[in-house]
User: Fold this.
Amino acid sequence: MRGDFFKNADADEMIFVHQGSGTLSTMYGSIDFSYGDYIVIPRGTIYQIRFDQSANRLLYIESYSPIRFPARYRNQSGQLLEHSPFCERDIRLPENLETHSETGDFRVFIKKQNRIYPYIYGTHPFDVVGWDGFHYPYAMSIFDFEPLTGRIHMPPPIHQQFEADQFVVCSFVPRLYDYHPDAIPAPYHHSNIDSDEILYYVDGDFMSRNNISKGQLTLHPAGLPHGPHPGAIERSIGQKSTEELAVMIDPFRPMQITKAAMQLDVEDYYKSWIDHLQPTS
Assistant:
């Protein structure tokens, strides 16, 4: 196995695979991945990613604390409880550990203190004969997340799949709508206080938004009210289910937006809650 390697010495990494497939090769073995997979890579892991094709789309997250499952879904021993929307069988560990004994020049890009340094190993980084413990990369599919539903609208925390010290990650998956006879399936208007809200739109028709495309990101800062677009509440009445697929990231500190991201800004998005059917004075 040749080519460059990478090691993040600063942060754990999470990769959501929106488009594409391939193999994550690590010092612990390999993990095959495809559309809808979350890949969690603990800091210090040396790895390569090989894609099956050139067209790939990934959502990438770094965490300066470990990425873990929500505490309310774990017992004191760390096992997932029966009411968790996923279970240990959904976790895919590295397989097919290959011990490489080659010598030569193996370039490993190491990230430390937000800089990336090229480093040359004299032996193959995957010269591992075995491993033990619970520090290893893993993958699990968003399609294995079993949604929690109720008679009335369930708040966003029921979609949570992962957490870290400074953010949570939620999975919005196809599910039944609220089934109380008087329920309004569209979410209520609200303003987050403890976190910003970032939504990455993966697939399907996101019922609370108008004119949203696959691969778009929305940011709703903490404290600013938002909710369904005009007409979304009315459209939701009588609907039985949704096929939406999205990943939500709620950071507990305000997002800092780069200049490159601002070049992708949809200029009039913030005006999209204006009901143009209403007369103006």
